[in-house]
Amino acid sequence: MAIQQKLSLMIPGPTPVPEKVLQALGRHPIGHRSKDFQDLMEITTKNLQWLHQTKNDVLTITGSGTAAMEAGMISTLSKGEKVICGVNGKFGQRWVKVAKEFGLEVIKIEAEWGKPLDPKDFKTILEKDDKKEIKAVILTHSETSTGVINDLKTISSHIRNHKKALSIIDCVTSIGACSVPVDDWELDVVASGSQKGYMIPPGLSFVSMSDKAWQASENSNLPKFYLNLKSYKKSLLSNSNPYTPAVNLVFALDESLKMMKDEGLDKIFKRHERHKLAVSEAAKTLNLKLFADENHLSPAVTAIQIEDIDAEQFRKNIKNKYDILLAGGQDHLKGKIFRVGHLGYINDRDIITVIAAIGNTLVEQNIISTDTAGKALKIASCHL
């Protein structure tokens, strides 16, 4: 089987990696207890705080975004405590599973896949909690499985009004794609992963912890060792890590964060917004249906419904002919939708290329005309 040398990743993770970041990965490792590594950790931690728009501790874990979320939950909660979990996709479902695995009592707030969570549902349940028994609200900001972004700003305001409950937020595909002002929204635990907006390979995850979250950690009795965030906080005081970190991934992180600072937060967020609009408007022009609520489209990924043909075969055709990898539907959506990632190291050329590939494939299957495919490219260009 021939090795594909130019496979274009248009999926919500792993995302493409810049050349400078790849070169950083190839450096000789250094000792993780050395002064050089401590200096590196100091720089990357400060830049992580910049990206999160926070003065809070931002901890680096060798592990995936799921590890970061689990760490946030088990480091701040205790067995039997009540938590609210927002569920409108696969990752919301995952946090319910994790919470139940650790003996937490879960109150689910659900929405149909493709629809956003309703902030009023959170408000209602939190306001009725006179005894302040709810200890945390856990939800996914950008639900990758459906292409929906939830109204975290409004939901977080209801959590703050409760006074006692922590916000534990999966921002794995929103950090680095849209503004998540951790301090302004007073978010307590924010988890993210390296292979998304950070533009580096999988392997690192990040957790922002507020003072309120650290206070809760003093009473947490859930079992933990490697993912005990108190260990990471202690090590951070000396710009270190409690265990052997992925040193070369930290080299890569340093380079990617420098690139992000050079571009600037506002330009990063505007770029993702442009790409979201270009893909979604082009899809509609191609007579395809957006799966997610159009008022809540994620800046990271666009989920597209395709009728009459199997979405998995459609993805396969695009990969085989154009060396472009699109994401498929998950669980009951497999074969019914495909997802176009536009997260991280993606530029306007990538967007035009993927729209052209989708349009040409539809033409080849006699689903649309060449004129329609051309109109979609023109519409996309208007947003770039």
UniProtKB/TrEMBL annotation:
Its EC number is 1.12.-.-. Substrate binds at residue 339. Coiled coil: none annotated. GO terms for molecular function: alanine-glyoxylate transaminase activity; L-serine-pyruvate transaminase activity; oxidoreductase activity. It holds the Pfam family Aminotran_5. It comes from the Bacteria. GO terms for biological process: glycine biosynthetic process, by transamination of glyoxylate. The modification N6-(pyridoxal phosphate)lysine is found at residue 196. Keywords: Aminotransferase, Oxidoreductase, Pyridoxal phosphate, Transferase. Its cofactor is pyridoxal 5'-phosphate. Residues 27-330 form the Aminotransferase class V domain. Belongs to the class-V pyridoxal-phosphate-dependent aminotransferase family. This is Soluble hydrogenase small subunit. The gene is DHSS.
